[in-house]
Amino acid sequence: MKTVEIRISGRVQKVGMRNCVRHIAGKLSIRGDVMNQADGTVRIRATGDPIILDKFVSMLYSCPRALIRDIEILDIQFAQFPDFTVVRTAEETR
Q1: Domain 2-80 classification at class level
Q2: Which of 8, 15, 23, 78 could form a disulfide with 65 if both were Cys (CB 3.0 to 4.6 A apart)?
Q3: Tell me: the pLDDT tens digits for 3-12?
Q4: Is residue 18 annotated as a catalytic residue, yes or no?
């Protein structure tokens, strides 16, 4: 098991990207979270088997309405998550 941080750039906000990511993560039993960033990117923290994480990243391109320009993947310190959640920003909760 390992944890990665994935940053996705392109047209990835206000197109249902976070819900699509959560759906894919659920299919693959990946734990973590997904959040919109102020710079227009989407940040994902995901924990799972390395081979399954590779499949997860490749499946992100299937999210409808999103236009992914770049995906950056960084190995980060291992983290355990109870499930996979969409994190709402402060602006969204107002």
Answers
A1: alpha beta
A2: 15
A3: 999 999 999 9
A4: yes
Kindly compute the dihedral angle of the four CA atoms of residues 76, 42, 20, 60, in this order, to the nearest 10 degrees: -60
Beta pairing class for 84-87 and 31-36: parallel
- List 11, 18, 45, 65, catalytic entry: 18
Alpha carbon separation from 22 to 30, 53, 94 (Å, rounded) = 9, 13, 22
Question: How many Cβ atoms from other residues are within 10 Å of residue 28's Cβ?
Answer: 15
Determine whether 7 is an active site residue: no
pTM: 0.93
27-37 pLDDT, tens digit per residue, is: 999 999 999 99
Catalytic residue among 22, 31, 36, 45: 36
pLDDT of residue 94: 54
**How is residue 86 written in tokens?**
């969409």
